[in-house]
Fold L-gulonate 3-dehydrogenase.
Amino acid sequence: MEITQTIAATAVVGVGYMGGGIAQVLALHGYKVALGDVDGEIAERARVRLVDQARDFEARGLLAAGAAETIAANLAAAGSIEDAVSTADYVAEAVPEDPVIKADILRRISSAAPAGAVIASNTSAIPIGELAASVTGPGRFLGVHWMNPAPFIPGIELIPGPQTSPQVMNLAEELILALGKTPARVADTPGFVANRLQFALYKEAARIVEEGVAAPSQIDAVVSNTFGFRLALFGPFAIGDMAGLDVYESSYRTLEKAYGERFTPPTALTATVEEGNLGLKTGRGFLDIDPAGRESLVAYRDTAYARLSQLRAELGQAPGL
């Protein structure tokens, strides 16, 4: 199967909150977007909603001047899913997170789209290999996992299935970069990376509530003002390397005594510490940070945290929380 060489015409199938946001981003960056949903009437209502929402974003300074008109010029409602994808080089599937629904829609998309069109599922957790069984030409199929709200969250996971062509992965990555987003290639496992981490945190937070250690509002206050605050700027490995991996291992030992094997130190961590690689203070950790750049990194960190604190003070407390 010959895959398209460039992406110009696109389609979004499933234009609710998630799919609508994806469509806005594509349209804002100059791609023609056909909106496909249950029928043409629903697709047209979505088009009107997305343009109105873009005008509101622009009025509030969340999008640049003229963004709404660009989005309006590039969005078009299709009469059916098949019409939406019929001339697309790239199709984003964003229907509800139900394997049966997704399988049915992917069959319809792959039957109606051009043979070389790239088909991307926005699944949050369903393995791409499982969904690929419903796609004609699975070499052109991959996962492209956006996060809500799509216009403003920069990170996107790219997940290949067992038959995904390297060319398709490269095309998808080029597209995501052209949209001003940050792609990360991850393996095809349930939940991928973002949701596996996110739901692990949620489960432990719920367990803390069940144990009566803290109320949900207090847990949110702890997370958003401590390690969650840091996570807005750095990932867990960068934070660990800056803190010291020996400190992490020691903390795990304390937690393991109290809570059991779910807090047993990870093998990768203990092995790294045993090798004497403790992170920034020894010049090497999981990320192999260059010791020569230590002072610059610390200065960046301090400036970034101070600026984030200022932004939070400017924004104030989130309404209703």
About this structure: Residues 9-185 form a domain with the Rossmann fold fold (CATH 3.40.50.720). The chain has a mean pLDDT of 96. Strands lie at 9-13, 32-36, 75-77, 90-93, 118-121, 141-145, 155-160, 182-185. The radius of gyration is 22 Å.
